[in-house]
Amino acid sequence: MPRPSCLQQKNGYAPPDQKTGDSKAAQEARAGGVVSGWYSFLQADGRRRTVHYRADDQQGFRATVHQDKA
Fold this sequence. Notes:
This protein is mostly beta strands and 70 residues long. It has strands spanning 8-13, 24-31, 34-42, 48-56, 60-67. Strands 1-2-3-4-5 form a five-stranded antiparallel β-sheet, with no helix packed on it. The relative contact order is 0.20. The model has no long low-confidence stretch (mean pLDDT 84).
């Protein structure tokens, strides 16, 4: 089923957890048939990993991963 080109949506979250120290965040947007966004989280070793992604019908899912140095 074709997606309407006017379909747009954006959402995100960043729930800090003071008790456990868990740190994660994400944001995603849709414009027609393209979904793009990022998510990040704090790894057990203290480094933050961030993944930026984009997905569409022509090229599928593509992601780049960045990791802060400790």
